[in-house]
């Protein structure tokens, strides 16, 4: 009623978003990024490995995302195999990669039918305070922007691959998909970037993913109360604005740490 939330934000206000991108934050990873959305903290590390392409797509590499919600990030999670929420988040990220075409899998192919890159993207939540999907998608994008792949050739005499670590090329990111989540209350009230407390009280959530051109990449609505067309359109409009803000933030941080 008062248009005010427990943490003092207005209904349509995002939490402060910080994005620390340091190519050395995980020294064993080929690209990494840490993203904070209010208290929600997510780190993403990308590991690149060589593999043979699949027989039915000889000219494509692979991207394998995995979202982890360990017990250390919140009392609601237990140790052990991934729970339902972690599995749903991993599937959501896989769909975003696929639907947005952020990376053309053909770009990951080195020699058609013989050799391609596999990018293992591990997204780990360090502190859970709601809206894990937005933070995960943001961390993934920031980490991928940070990836440098060494040049690889196949020695024709031995048939073995030779990796040149001195010559590295950045990954080609074709689209910058950004997720924007809303919590729905009583079918009428929409609040953006919900905290864990607000998620628990909400009657439903919806996540909109848009790219650089304002195109819709995906709408993720796991059950809950329905949304009218007009409300959904309102969400999409706000998501398009959010995409521009996040893209600006990523570009700013990426520029500040250009490899020497």
UniProtKB/TrEMBL annotation:
It is found in: Cytoplasm; Nucleus, Nucleolus. One of its GO terms (biological process) is U5 snRNA 3'-end processing. SUPFAM superfamilies: Ribonuclease PH domain 2-like (SSF55666), Ribosomal protein S5 domain 2-like (SSF54211). Pfam families: RNase_PH, RNase_PH_C. GO terms for molecular function: mRNA 3'-UTR AU-rich region binding. Gene3D superfamilies: GHMP Kinase, N-terminal domain (3.30.230.70). Coiled coil: none annotated. GO terms for cellular component: cytoplasmic exosome (RNase complex); nuclear exosome (RNase complex); nucleolus. Residues 22-150, 177-240 form the Exoribonuclease phosphorolytic domain. Keywords: Acetylation, Cytoplasm, Exosome, Nucleus, RNA-binding, rRNA processing. InterPro entries: ExoRNase_PH_dom1 (IPR001247), ExoRNase_PH_dom2 (IPR015847), ExoRNase_PH_dom2_sf (IPR036345), Exosome_comp_Rrp42_subfam (IPR050590), PNPase/RNase_PH_dom_sf (IPR027408), Ribosomal_Su5_D2-typ_SF (IPR020568), Rrp43 (IPR033196). The keyword Lyase does not apply. Belongs to the RNase PH family. This is Exosome complex component RRP43. It comes from Pampusana beccarii.
């Amino acid at each position: 009623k008062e248009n005010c939330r427990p943490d003092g934000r207005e209904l349509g206000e995002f939490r402060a978003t910080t994005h620390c991108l340091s190519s050395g934050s995980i020294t064993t990873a080929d690209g990494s990024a840490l993203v904070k959305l209010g208290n929600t903290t997510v780190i993403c590390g990308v590991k690149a490995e060589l593999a043979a392409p699949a027989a039915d797509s000889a000219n494509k590499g692979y991207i394998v995302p995995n979202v982890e919600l360990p017990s250390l990030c919140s009392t609601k999670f237990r140790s052990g195999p991934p729970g339902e929420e972690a599995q749903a988040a991993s599937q959501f990220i896989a769909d975003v990669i696929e639907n947005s075409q952020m990376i053309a899998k053909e770009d990951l192919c080195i020699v058609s039918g013989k050799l391609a890159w596999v990018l293992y993207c591990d997204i780990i939540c360090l502190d859970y305070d709601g809206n894990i999907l937005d933070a995960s998608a943001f961390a993934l994008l920031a980490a991928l922007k940070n990836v440098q792949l060494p040049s690889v050739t196949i020695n024709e005499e031995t048939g073995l691959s030779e990796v040149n670590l001195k010559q590295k090329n950045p990954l080609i990111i074709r689209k910058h998909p950004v997720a924007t989540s809303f919590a729905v209350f009583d079918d009428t009230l929409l609040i953006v970037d919900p905290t864990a407390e607000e998620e628990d009280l909400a009657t439903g959530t919806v996540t909109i993913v848009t790219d650089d051109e304002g195109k819709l990449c995906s709408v993720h609505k796991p059950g809950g109360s329905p949304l009218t067309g007009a409300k959904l359109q309102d969400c999409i409009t706000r998501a398009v604005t959010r995409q521009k803000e996040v893209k600006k933030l990523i570009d700013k941080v990426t520029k500040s740490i250009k490899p020497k």
